[in-house]
Amino acid sequence: MIAIESVSKRFKRVEALKGVSLDIEEGEFFGLLGPNGAGKSTLMNILSGYLEADEGSASLDGQPLNAANEKTRLKMGLVPQSISLYEDLSALQNLEIFGKLYQLPSKSLKERMEFWLNKVQLWERRNDKVKTFSGGMKRRVNLVSSLLHEPKILMCDEPTVGVDPQSRNAIFEFLEEQNAVGLTIIYTTHYMEEVERLCSRIAIIDNGEIIGLGTREELMAKLPFEDEVEFAKEIARPSLLEAFRALGEVEPIKEKYQLRVKPNIPMSRIHQIIEDENLSHRQFQFKQPTLEAVFLSMTGRSLRE
Amino acid sequence: MNTIWVLFIKDWKLFLNDKVAVFISYLVPAMLIFVMGNVFDIGGKKNNNVGPSGIRIAIVDTHQSRLSQAIVADMKRSESFRVTDTYTNEEGVELPLTEQRARDMIFNNRLRYALIIDEQFIEDGFKLRMKWLINGRNRIETQMAEGLLQKTLFTSYFSNLTQLPSIQEYADRMAEGFEQYGRPLAEWMADQYDIETEEIMESILSKQWLSLGVTEFSDPSDAQTEGNDGEDPGENLGDAFLGEMLQIEQEQVFGKQVKNIMATISVAGYAMMFMLFAISSASANLHNERLTGIYLRLLSSPVTRSDILWSKYIYNVSVAFSQVVFLFLVSWVIFRTDIFNSFGQLLLVCLFVSAVVTCFGMLLAAFSKNFAQANGVGTLLILSMSAVGGVWFPVSMLPESVQVFSKFTITYWSMEAFLATLYEGKNIIEMLPILGVLTAITVGITAISMWRFKRADLF
């Protein structure tokens, strides 16, 4: 559906994107995961037509995705990272403006405004100025403003920034619902929990380059270990550490040690070592690795550095 | 106390870090003081003469007597006026100005004042009669010009008194009489003090003129009174005497008899200035909208940068237009200014002025990096243009070197357009040159702004 080929973008001395290539299929919930400054928003801005790539191209169903192509822009919806609303106008007035910019007929526009505001439980507040809304409510209006024209693809650029957990969850449910009825969603974030929950396929981006692409399982398979075990430094006897080193990498992390278990090592061996050392299992935390670990193994840095 | 001190220092740090705030607080007032100081010559460069310099006037002297020529020469020497008394015809020949030609020059706004010295210049042997033709569109300027004219004429009159035929005749008779009666005295004195007789004769003769009473009127300001209340008959008599000796008949040759021209001009000027402030701020808001991400949303929809700019342009023109029309209507309600004599034409002028003001605002936004910068630079430019463009006081009050810059300001041409309609009663055809200039400025500035905005990194 969307084909991105060797897209590069430079801002003065900063190379924001370096030859990025991606394919996004119809109906996917595609995640773009990376730390701040990785190039996520730049890529979104190019796909939305706000910026032009210096090199490479992006297309939707074979049609170029750029500022000049109005047809493709009508099929796209962008939920910007910032609250891009006229705060001195009401929710309804904002939707009316954006709907008219998408050339929606009046009757159809009215129906859609009512539908979407009801969907996000803001119909009762439709005549209130946006500046009186909470952060979560503003995010919801920000979201539905991009859905009025019923795009085929929705691009969400970190849509939950500054939102409380409850509102965040509501946004997730909303997006999952829309994806379930066929909306293709491209979702950028630097929170791996979000992509892990929402996305069927994930691209990891860092310093303007795609460093990993695939489903969660495919990305996790790239890790040199399968499980993680954490334990406090106080119980880390030399014998314990030596025994664990035979099963994988042992690294100190702040006040703890972390064992990254090599693939195909059964957990029973770890439990056996714990018993041999006369320690309690409660003193050990067993974890599944996350995309954070994938990023760390690929870049040597954590997502939030 | 320490808390207050810490907070006090914090506020100074914030202020000093805000370059725009520092610029507006210190540099803008300093520059305005410079301009105003030059207007009123506060630095005293012109030998403490405070006032305008170089008011252009034409002098037509068909009398061509020694006195009239002396007065014309004194007027030319005066720093207060720039005198024109000739013109160049189509063959390139320089000829003396005529009254009709002077009237034409006033009509064409090439100058606003003319002094006509014609055959009725001298009356009763010593009274002077002149005509003072004006285009009195600016009463302050007209009053200043008249004041300077009177001062110059009075001074010139008394220093050239001997050029009056009647005085010369009197002098000749005095000389004859003195020759008859004074020479014997002079000869005796010469003999007693071993001085030349002619020397004594010359000395006594010159002092004789002073005793005619010229010193009584040498400072005409002494003759000014506070009213004919009879308390100081000497001064009243002097004032009345001066008024009799020099009569200047004023004639407004051009411009409508507008009921309240000063209110009209003030409204036009201040409307200009506030339009500029309002539109500059509205245009600078482009930056704020960019920061909120609105443009990202708009430009991801079927909206182009050109669409955004043109919509802003039309919006700002409509705001400026509604503002200036509203202010004129308010002036009509409060001051009964004559705005309905040619209301349709006034609306057209308002539209042209609104367009040029909007272009200025867009140019400001195009070359500024953020709202604060646009506002700061805008404030400086608007106040400067208002000062030199004739909004606050006549352009002729400014130094010559500054007057050159007036014609490069949109305030100057906008004020000319308003006055051409409201005061000079020009029709559309006659206003084409001014409207043409406004159009050229609008088109030029718009082209530059559009070129600048097309660059993607601006928004």
Helix/strand-derived category of chain B reads alpha/beta
Q: What composes the largest sheet of chain B?
A: 6 strands, mixed
The name of the CATH superfamily of the largest domain in chain A reads P-loop containing nucleotide triphosphate hydrolases
Strand order of the largest sheet of chain A: 6-7-8-3-9-10
Count of distinct structural domains of chain A: 2
Overall 3D form of chain A: elongated
Q: Which regions of chain B are unreliable across 5 or more consecutive residues at pLDDT < 50? A: 47-51, 209-238
**Percent of residues in beta strands of chain B:** 5-15%
Distance between the termini of chain B: 47 Å
Strand content of chain A: 25-35%
- Beginning-to-end CA distance, first to last residue of chain A: 34 Å
Could you explain the architecture of this structure?
- The complex is a heterodimer of chains A (305) and B (459).
- Chain A folds into two domains: 2-220, P-loop containing nucleotide triphosphate hydrolases (Rossmann fold, 3-Layer(aba) Sandwich), CATH 3.40.50.300; 227-288, Alpha-Beta Plaits, CATH 3.30.70.
- Chain A is built from eleven helices and 14 strands.
- Chain A has helices at residues 40-48, 70-75, 91-101, 106-119, 135-144, 165-180, 192-198, 216-220, 238-245, 267-276, 291-299; strands spanning 2-11, 14-24, 29-33, 55-60, 63-64, 76-79, 153-157, 184-189, 201-206, 209-214, 227-232, 248-253, 256-261, 284-287.
- In chain A, helix 3 crosses helix 4 (106-119).
- Chain A is elongated and about 75 Å long.
- The mean pLDDT of chain A is 89.
- Chain B is of the alpha/beta class and 459 residues long.
- Among the domains of chain B are: 55-163, abc type-2 transporter like fold (3-Layer(aba) Sandwich); 261-453, no CATH class.
- Chain B has 16 helices and eight strands.
- In chain B, helix 9 runs antiparallel to helix 11 (305-335).
